[in-house]
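Annex B. Sample input.
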Amino acid sequence: MVYEHIYWPAGFLITFSTYGTRLHGRSNGSVDRKHNKFGQPYLPENEFRVNTIRKNMQQRKVTLNPCQRDIALKSIVDICAEREWNLMAAHVRSEHLHIVVSGKQKPERMMTEIKSKATRLLRKSYPEMQNLKIWTRHGSTKYIWKTEHIYDAIKYVLYEQGVPMSVYHNKSLR
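Annex B, continued. Sample output.
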């Protein structure tokens, strides 16, 4: 349901990873359901936790190849156009992706729809992915309240992720 009279944030930074690639307790940091407040530090390194999670995984981890990344990116562009969301930037990497988007829908719903669309297109093109969990259970949905912070998020997504992989940038935002 859309409420025109409610103040909406400038946008959202949505991030999620592929299954089995960003395990809680890794040395480069992660968050979980109980440790996910703004400004709170990452979970401490915990090799026992990482090994336990790895042992309990139901399948192999999913790493996207260049063609699969392009398919995932196309699905993001398509769903944003279909839903009339303003896609500002997206960067699909081998093990995770970032999206800067705005729209009058909660970012959790956007993330769910993006994952669903990407999963359908990947499974259609790659039958061997038919029975795989492709994405993690949830992800990160950060509200961006100020327009000037949108540009910081876009810069982060496009230029601070390492070598560019499958990238979308809305050129009208220069």
